[in-house]
Design brief:
Blueprint lengths: L1 H33 L3 H5 L9 H20 L31 H19 L14 H23 L21 E4 L2 E5 L15 E5 L2 E4 L5 H9 L11 H10 L7 E4 L2 E6 L2 E4 L11 H10 L7 H9 L54 E7 L24 E4 L16 E3 L8 E2 L3 E3 L2 H6 L7
Parallel strand pairs: 8-11
Antiparallel strand pairs: 1-4, 2-3, 4-12, 5-6, 6-7, 8-9, 9-10
Helix pairs in contact: 1-5, 3-4, 3-5, 7-8
Length: 452
């Protein structure tokens, strides 16, 4: 009887958590769509982004497909719109021409779907089927909606017109952070086999052996990146890969996206407001090619995905990999800049409680960090619950980003979480940090040499 009561209590706690995560995601979707009028909702603000109203109905449609129909076995709410909201059938640039649900219809649809989901959640059993074990499919849907919320936030950054979003500024720097950190040679466990809501591309856990390397203690800042711009970095092909240089010329890139000349200096446009660059903020809205060029100019390189994860998760005292840099506990506002609490990256040094055991800062939140790795499955990868989440993107076309941004929700961010995008993309909240191979004397001394 005690064991049965414990299982019941565990299931109730899981139901409460699922309901809370679904509600938080929907509250954010409402905030981002209610902030603009109906004309803005149906307008396409960039050919590489969907109209906001498409994102809203799409998250409802995925919720209906997986939870109402599959898990719940209930009658469809709107089976006539499945094709319209299939992301693989219609490229973003074509979506405004589709007979999409209007703003009122979309809001009514997602509300109806959510009511059915919360009703079936009351009686769901979290056993007997892998899809529902530990609430996985509910967690997948909560993460999916939060991922689209971040996409909608990026659309807001691209929209013209007066500001409609507001948030308090991020905290100031609490400690001074700079220089590099040596990560000693040796193995670590990459990925996870135990995190119940981890997605298929994060699995399975596997051992990776790395030589000693050096990684920046913080993301590259606006001030540091401005030096690259001022030094003519965008005009010098020495720093760019052949593909990067071709793209830089074709796209006419001269600075990060949203940087604008402000007299003799640079400012930036952020959610409809123009202001001066904040020197100690991580640079944001740079493509992989720009990050790669900066790293070459600085005499370094971008870290591999494995190097990034070891710096973020490996604890030298125990040899184990943590869920987050600070440990296994969920992120708090003291650990990281996540969840759209702020509308900008925080200055370097703002989150000392979030540093890794090796002293690497702000690996979670603020800006997605480009790595040099292409997107591939781990050894033993198995697609679940569908190939289109990860497997169809595997190959050399995409580069991996890690760590989340100020627009990423905690439910969709952990030390194992993998994001990916085309190397030309910079509308996302993307930045980077640099790495390099350790010199023999550094590896022997167990620390990076300052000033080198």
């Amino acid at each position: 009887m005690i064991e049965s009561r414990a299982r019941t209590d565990s299931a109730e706690r899981l139901r409460s958590r699922i309901a809370a995560e679904l509600t938080r995601a929907r509250d954010r979707s409402r905030l981002l769509t209610d902030a603009v009028d109906d004309d803005d909702l149906v307008r396409q603000h960039s050919p590489i982004m969907s109209p906001l109203v498409w994102d809203l109905a799409h998250v409802g449609n995925q919720e209906e497909l997986w939870l109402v129909r599959d898990v719940g076995g209930r009658e469809p709410v709107r089976c006539d719109i499945d094709d319209l909201y299939d992301a693989f059938r219609h490229p973003r640039r074509e979506r405004p021409s589709l007979p999409l649900l209007g703003p009122g219809e979309a809001r009514s649809y997602v509300a109806t779907v959510r009511a059915k989901v919360l009703d079936l959640l009351d009686g769901i059993r979290f056993d007997g089927r892998r899809l529902v074990a530990d609430g996985f499919v509910f967690g997948m849907i909560a993460q999916h909606e939060q991922q689209h919320a971040e996409t909608m936030l990026a659309t807001h950054q691209l929209r013209a017109g007066p500001p409609v979003l507001a948030a308090p500024p991020p905290p100031p720097a609490a400690v001074r952070v700079g220089g590099e950190v040596l990560v000693p040679a040796g193995p670590f466990e990459m990925g996870t086999s135990t995190d119940p809501w981890a997605l298929d591309n994060e699995r399975p856990a596997h051992r990776v052996e790395l030589p000693a390397y050096v990684i920046d203690a913080a993301p590259v800042t606006n001030a540091a990146y401005r030096e690259f711009v001022t030094d003519g970095g965008y005009a010098d092909p020495r720093w760019w890969s052949a593909e990067g240089w071709r793209h830089r010329r074709a796209a006419g890139l001269v600075a990060p996206m949203h940087w604008r000349r402000d007299g003799a200096d640079w400012g930036c446009l952020r959610f409809g407001r123009f202001g001066p660059l904040v020197p100690d903020e991580p640079v944001v809205h740079v493509s992989y090619y720009e990050a790669e060029a900066y790293a070459a100019w600085a005499g370094k390189r971008l870290p591999t995905e494995a190097e990034w994860e070891k710096a973020a998760r490996w604890d030298p005292a125990t040899g184990r990999s943590r869920r987050y840099p600070w440990g296994d506990g969920e992120p708090t506002p003291e650990h990281a800049n996540l969840g759209q609490r702020h509308l900008a990256p925080a200055p370097v040094g703002a989150y000392p409680a979030g540093a890794s055991p090796l002293g690497v800062h702000q690996l979670i939140g603020d800006v997605w960090e480009w790595t040099s790795s292409t997107f591939r499955g781990y050894p033993g990868f198995a697609a679940f619950p569908y190939r289109e989440y990860s497997e169809v993107f595997f190959g050399t076309e995409y580069r991996v980003l890690r760590g989340g941004s100020f627009g990423t929700d905690p439910v969709a961010c952990r030390g194992t979480f993998r994001n990916w995008d085309l190397p030309i993309r910079r509308q996302i909240f993307s930045g980077f940090r640099c790495a390099r191979d350790a010199r023999p004397e550094e590896a022997a001394a167990g620390r990076a040499e300052p000033g080198r």
